Amino acid sequence: MGDPADSYHAYFHRRWGHLRRARVRALAWLLDAPDLLDAGAPEWQGRIASLAPVTPEIERWLAQLDADPSRLDAALGPRVHTRLGLYAEKLMAFYFQEQGQLVAHSLQVRANRNETIGEFDFLLDAGPQAVEHIEFATKFYLLGEPAGGNLDALVGPNLADSLGAKLRKVFARQLELGAHPAAQAVLPRPVVRSRALVKGWLFYPHGASADMEGVSPRHCRGFWCAQDEIGELEGNAFLILPRLQWLPPFKAASATWLMNRAQLAAELQAQFEESPTPVLVAVVREEPGAILEVERGFIVPNDWRERARSPRLKSNG
């Protein structure tokens, strides 16, 4: 399903292969991965944020965290995270805090005790009299309809939303929160700018790709296929990725849940009998002392294509 020889996976393993801890690797991915959206595209009107390139100082900081993750572990807390978005957000909050940029994180705006208007993901220092509002998202979407460049054709694996619907909500509501009268009571300083920082992966049928207006041409890519198409997968070593390992390409010294193609087919059959939830699978290769992801893709139930065409997705959000 595509040639992984010069893929983002290969780049990530070259650049960050020395990092051993999953949390630190996830943070490195958040800081260094290509943006999902093209910050220069005119439709975003300059409201897409991009992180600065990773400097040698940040590289050393990540290596130090990998050697001693106590500060990161303390920031994430003892609670076992189950929501990928919250996990990614806490990683970014730790980074902004360590860089001296964070003014507030997850700051709620309420009309009254029982009504929440919204929440500022991050307020970053923009000088003594101002803050910048950063709306942060880490998203995974599958191209359900190869024809056309409509962002509504990029749908979530559970078909609960689309990239188009998500962005309409971000731009129409979330980035306007700083102007809401109820926000003025909680803001430490006026909001001088509001932008969206969006990371993630897009998945294409059979490794194909499509030009999508507003999407960065450098975004992280994977494939998707139906359950009865897994015979077309290249390789014969697979892992089903737990949700909190969806961010960077997988690497570990060993993995007890490594499967061959027949075992993968049996596991998918068992899982889809219980739930129609698509499964993210890593195609891996084994090296001395390491198992490396070389490609990734969602395996979906055989009726997923038809369900992905549902018109309710077009207006959700």
UniProtKB/TrEMBL annotation:
InterPro entries: DUF1853 (IPR015003)
Highest taxon above the source species: Bacteria
Record's protein name: DUF1853 family protein
Organism this protein belongs to: Massilia horti
Upper taxonomic lineage: Bacteria, Pseudomonadati, Pseudomonadota, Betaproteobacteria, Burkholderiales
